[in-house]
């Protein structure tokens, strides 16, 4: 179903219900298709450990760098 923007504004609830129940709805402007309404699909649970074994924290990660400290604390 193709619906112009002005009609979509007045019938948004109906269009959302139609899409929820499996119908395809396209919103057009001047009869030119612009966007398609689609139901929301959650991305799912986050997967932890995707970079396990692919990244090693450097041994000096927590060491302070005097040049950087001078940039932040030069006026103190």
Architecture overview:
With 76 residues, the chain is of the alpha+beta class. The chain has a domain at 2-37. The chain has helices spanning 5-10, 12-20, 66-73, and strands at residues 2-4, 25-29, 32-37. A 3-stranded mixed beta sheet has the order 1-2-3. The longest helix has 9 residues, at 12-20. It starts with a strand and ends with a helix.
In helices, the fraction of residues equals: 25-40%
Count of discrete alpha- or pi-helical segments spanning 4 or more residues: 3
Kindly state the number of beta strands.
Answer: 3
Order of helices and strands: EHHEEH
- For the largest sheet, list the strands in their spatial order: 1-2-3
Largest sheet: 3 strands, mixed
> Which word captures the global form?
elongated
Low-confidence stretches: none
Strand content: 15-25%
In terms of structural class, how would the helical and strand content be classed? Answer: alpha+beta
Cα distance spanning the termini? 67 Å
Tell me the Rg in angstroms. Answer: 26 Å
**Overall mean pLDDT score?**
91
Question: Which features characterize this protein?
Answer:
single chain, 76 residues, alpha+beta, three-stranded mixed β-sheet, 3 strands, 30% helix, elongated
């Amino acid at each position: 179903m193709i619906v112009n923007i002005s009609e979509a504004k007045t019938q948004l609830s109906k269009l959302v219900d139609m899409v929820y129940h499996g119908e395809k709805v396209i919103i057009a402007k001047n009869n030119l298709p612009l966007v398609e309404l689609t139901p929301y699909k959650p991305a799912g649970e986050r997967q932890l450990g995707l970079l396990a074994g692919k990244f090693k924290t450097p041994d000096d990660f927590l060491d302070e760098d005097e040049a950087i400290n001078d940039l932040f604390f030069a006026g103190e």
